[in-house]
Automatic annotation (TrEMBL):
Region (Disordered): 1-75
Residue spans of biased composition, Basic and acidic residues class: 22-50
InterPro entries documented for this protein: DUF6474
Protein name: Uncharacterized protein
Pfam families: DUF6474
Amino acid sequence: MARSVKKQAGKQDPATPQPTSSREHRKDVKKTAKAEQKAAKTRASTEQKSAKATAKAAKKTAKAQKKGEYGRITPGNTKKILGILKIAGPAIAPFAAKAAFTARDGYDRMRARRIGIPVEDLGRFSGRGAALHARIAGDADALHDLRMKAGGQGGNGDSAARQVGVEQFTDRAEQRLSQLTSAVRAAERMPGNRRRAAHRAVAGELDRIEADLLHRLEL
């Protein structure tokens, strides 16, 4: 009987859970607390950066409203927008590239409308005289069309005389356009007042060439 009781005392109940190591438990608690602390620190840093960026953006907006530039896309405020996006960091990182592309695309479209050319042709015309360069290129194309149109007309003496007149006009006009192109390029390095005066003079010459060109194209 005593032997039977001793044997039963030596057995463990399989339903009774094994005790967990207190050292491992403390380790897990410490690791979890450290991870939560790091996450909280990251969130606080992100929120702080976002708050600073928002405050800076509000200040820039107020300044732009005072200057009358609010809502307008300019080279200056495009750079400022990109700078603010960079400062904001992880909070707005997924949207930064899209916002930068949208700002740049809007500015390019505005420039293209101002110059009067398609957006894809912006690379051909640059500088402060870009609009004049684009206008000169358009006039050169029109002169080429006029020459081809006159060359395709045969027949009587009147047509031949008209063709000679067109050839002489296009030769003179193309030579003048070449001179005006050089003048616009030279004006890029001039002081503001002189550059604007040079641009006005070139625009006046183009007005005269275009008026004669439209007359010869019977428009």
